[in-house]
Each structure stands twice: as C-alpha cells, then as structure tokens.
Amino acid sequence: MASDSPLQISRLLLSAMGIQMYLHHRDRVPQTGATLVVSNHRSFLDAPLLMSAIDRPIRFACHHYMGQVPVMREVVKKLGCFPLESSGQKQQSFFHQAIQLLKTRQAVGVFPEGTEPMVNSPARCEMGEFQRGFAHLALKAPVQDLAVLPIAIAVQDEIKSSAVPLKLLSFFDPSEPLFDQEGWHPLVVYQRVNVLVGRPFWITPSDRQKYQGKGARAIVQHFTSHCHDEINSLLIRGCY
C-alpha cells in the first residue's frame, strides 16, 4: 500500500494524534463491492476515522468551502474527498462523480447532516435531521449489489477549541448561510471514540423500479428515515 494513500494517511493521522478508536460490529462491513457509507458528523476527523474503521479507502463528499480554503483544500484532496457544489446548486457534479466511483466498485461516503453539526457542535449523543441526497444517489446509481452501510460515530472524550472565524469562511464560500454570523468554527478533536457499524442493506431492482414511479418520494423518505433511525440508535448505545 502506498504511504500516501488516503487509508494510510488516515491511519497515520489517528495514530499521531493518539486517538483511541473502538470498533463494534466489524463483521457487518461488506468486504468488497460498491458501498455507500452513511454516518453522523461532528469533526474533521470523521473521514479518516471511518476509513480506518472499515479498513478501506472511502471517497467522501465534503462541503463546498473545504475545496476553497487554502491548506484545507490540500488536506481533503490527500484524503480523496471531493467537494460539493455551493449551497443552492443541484449538485449534479456530486451525483456524477459518486456514480462513477460506485460503478468502479469503490466506497463513497456521505454525511447527510451537512454542515450544521460542524458549525453548531451539538451534544455528543445528539444528531440532526438527514438531507435526502444520499438516498437519491443510492436509488439513482445504476450499480448492481450496491450496499448502503450506516455507521455511528459515538464520542466518549473530545477536546473542543476554536479554529477560524466564521466570517472568514464566508469569504471563501458566501453561499453558506451558517457562515454569515459572528463566532468561530469549532475544532473538535477526539480522544476516545466508539465506531458502531449498522446493518447494511442492498438496493434491489424493485427499489429502483419504485424510484422511477409514483412511489419515488415514499421510498426516498423510507431509506432516509431507516438510515437516520439506525445510526441514531447506535449513537445512543455507543455514547453510554
């Protein structure tokens, strides 16, 4: 394995920072094939943490501003992440890139809570609502045997400090309303964290058929709620 691969970089980063990770239900991780990893989100460490946990490179979709800010832009590139388009856009580039990656049997990662928990930093055992883009991706991608893998990141101990002023980030990404306020972007560094793997489910031809018909809205909502409930249940269990 190349020393500069996203997986190796992730392992080295966690080791250098002395982060203790405890993995639960490793046997649920699909060993091969196209996989869509869905997780809660509260720290810049979540992408390397999840890669190290499932022992596989994951191509994460990250917020638009991460591809605009110097230094941060290089970090996300090294980790194999690809930035979303600015807020309000239809994210056609995201869907195109993610589908191409899944077609080549790679793992793609998404954080459906978006930027909200990164900026407002909720309590360790709290999780916000999920945006539905990942469900549309799973049902839209013309990929056989696509596994959707829900994972919870349950923090035991962390150090929280301030990183950069939100107004500065607004300079790089004026489309993000969360940056149009006073205060600082939190910097959350894990010390001890549980990673709990949920039960994977596979997208079936029947699911895709429903997505093409009148039941499209219902099945998108079903998958979104299913992943949210699974991760929330794991999160509560992992925090105590």
UniProtKB/TrEMBL annotation:
GO terms for molecular function: 1-acylglycerol-3-phosphate O-acyltransferase activity. This is 1-acyl-sn-glycerol-3-phosphate acyltransferase. Coiled coil: none annotated. One of its GO terms (biological process) is phosphatidic acid biosynthetic process. Pfam families: Acyltransferase. Keywords: Acyltransferase, Transferase. InterPro entries: Plipid/glycerol_acylTrfase. Residues 35-156 form the Phospholipid/glycerol acyltransferase domain. It comes from Phormidesmis priestleyi ULC007.
